[in-house]
Amino acid sequence: MSNEFFKQLRQKAALINSEVNHDNVSAMQRSLSQMDRELEAMHKRIPPTQELHAKAHDFLASSGIDTDYVSNPINTINIFERRQLEDHTNINKFLQREHEYMLINSVEEQRQVNNEEFDDFFNSQIAEFLDITDRDRMEEDENVADYKSFETDNVSTGANRISEYANVIKTLNANRLVNNDFNLLTNLANIRNLSDLKKSQDGANESWSILSHLINKSGVEDRLEGRFLHDYTTQPNDSTSATNTRRRLIKASKSWLEQQSAQYMNDYLNKNATKVKAGGNPAVTHRLRAFVELVFKTTSGWTDDRFEIVDAFPVWVFIYILIRCGHLDIAAKYVESNAEKFASERRFVEYFKEYVKADHHCVSKDTQESILADYHKFGYGSTKVDPYKLIIYKIIGRCELHKKSFPDVIKTTEDYIWLQLMLVREVTATEKNHFERYRLCDLQREITNLGNEYFDRHEPNPYIFFKILLLTHQFEESIDHLHKQRRLRLEAVHFAIPLFYCGLLKVPPMDKIQTNQILITLENNVKTLNFPRLIYQYVKVYLLERPKEALHYLALLSLYSPKKGYPNNDMVNLARTYVCKFTAESKDFKIILGSSGQERASGFADELKDLLYISSENEFNAKIIEPIAEKWAQTGRCIDAVYAYSLSRDYTMMVDILAKELSDALQKPQSYRITDPKLSQLSNKEIIDFSIKTMNQYESNEYISSLIDDTRKATIRTLIQALLFRVAYEEGRYETALQHIQQADIIPLEGDSNQLQLYAYRFSGLDENVKKNIPELLLNVMDILYKAW
């Protein structure tokens, strides 16, 4: 075929191809020259022969391949060996067996899980018990150390002071019982201070004075009990009521510092009366002028050449002294009536007048900016400036709050605290303000950062920092600071009590109280005092042998109750808990709980029922006696638990305690019980004698006997006989042992099949305390029979 023929054929194919839908057909990408070369190569690979030519003609003549001829032999070929199905497989049995295996595996897995969980639980209980034991031992060691330290420092007066304090607390509670308010502060302050050192005596007296001033001069006229609880302690810090209360307390702190300054000046004048010659004029201005001339003037002139002298007198010093002594109103009148003396600072008269009259002494924004401009001109100008003038501008304009000290004027710790209190401003969340932030919490943070060492550098005196903390209303930190001094822990507790009485102490939530820490910091840096722990530690150290006084101290916790403004009953419940704990651990528990008889005789705890918010005998049983009984039962004090349940007239529980005690004695040998604090330390004989005596006593009383069901009585008799059997068995008295087991009537000693069936039938009706001991008793009986016969 020629190339021309192929060209024509390609052109026709292209025309046909354009009309065909060939979306799924790939296009041929070969040129004619390529096709020629491939055909020529194929022709060369298969050389033509006559035989091939003949076969080709035959293939075409027969219309292609005979498919039947080719496929029939292929279909007859089978390369796999045919297998016959045998129908002898039991599918149901297989599934049943698999199901059993799964159940067994599941049970074994669950058993393993249960064992692991039990081991974990047991280990956690042991760890918790050891932790509590270690904590109690550590606390006991600390208590012993505290008491020894107290005895060392208080050889003669310590015991008397403990009694004096306790008498005040008893008087307080007596007034609470009749709903009378009580001047607790005065009564506690009158008790002589611990130390014979004058500086410590003075520090304690001043501390009582500060506390009294804060509580009585804060502008709150409610009764002393819970005075600040509702509107301050239990409110958020940024609430309106809490903010207003802080403002009043700040004012009271400044007032105390100002009174102290005025008293110092009066004492100084009296001491130098011959030099001053103030005469009999009692006017404040007259005496303060005399003080200024005495202190700031010498024979050669005024002590500081920077003083601005007007009419031969330093007016700025005089105004500052008036303000420092709390006579702001007199200072205002002096400035207004002597305006010509301030000709150089004409605007000062307006500044000062606005400052005195403004709410919370906050001048307007424009005035504050003008004062600040003048302050900067004075402070950073080239001319000398009177330091007392500068500090007055600092106070009225609240200038440069970042500069805390002012050494030219502020020379004492009291002056420093007073200046900071003059500068702080409390603002509610709803009040708009334009002034720079400097609040009480900022001052408190500053005081805390400086620390005790900063203020008490020379002669260590814990009362110095204690007073500072009180004046800046860090009541929780102040008690913690004093409590860290072992010799002053008696004082720390009795400073904390009036703060708690008036509602000025924040206490931590219940989940934080169990820690030994006294000062606990919560979220948002809120400081709380662990007052319940403080009181309980005091009771354990100083009042362990004085149960009546101890209960009175524990009853103080109920001061924070919903009736007094506290949001919940946590403190009331905690007071009950601590009363129960102390009673359970006290050897004098009988005089606390009372004695049993026809009617329960009252104990010390009954006197304080109203303070614990217990209104009936049933409630007293439920809240006090029964928790104590449960604790005794859990710690193996069977005799005491029986006593407590007899007081509450719960004879059913009393018998159940006896049954548990007898059952434990059967299960655990005495040598093991001695090492387990949860089991009784009594011998088997003592347990038997006590059980017999108790049952005889109450069964002889027809009324009490009727309250105990017969099944429980039978259980006790059975367990007594079983324990008598065990004692005789361990002592080798086999005949006596068999007699007791026969009287117990729980194990057959004869071979009669009917008897065996009867005992087997009765087994299911036995008390659990009896049933769990039968296997061991049966082994003991078999051992006796083997040895005897």
Overview of the molecule:
The protein is mainly α and 789 residues long. Among the domains are: 205 residues, no CATH class; 91 residues, no CATH class; 140 residues, no CATH class. The chain is 65% helix and 2% strand. The protein is built from 39 helices and 6 strands. Strands 1-2 form a two-stranded antiparallel ribbon. A two-stranded antiparallel sheet has the order 3-4. Strand 3 and strand 4 form a beta hairpin. It is flat, with a radius of gyration of 49 Å. The protein starts with a helix and ends with a helix.
Could you tell me the strand content as a percent range? under 5%
Unreliable stretches: none
Rg, Å, rounded: 49 Å
Provide the residue-averaged pLDDT: 85
In whole angstroms, the N-to-C terminal distance is 128 Å
Query: Helix content range of the residues, please?
Result: 55-70%
| Largest sheet composition | 2 strands, antiparallel
Name the overall outline: flat
Number of helices: 39
Strand order of the largest sheet: 1-2
The assigned structural class equals mainly alpha
Number of strands: 6
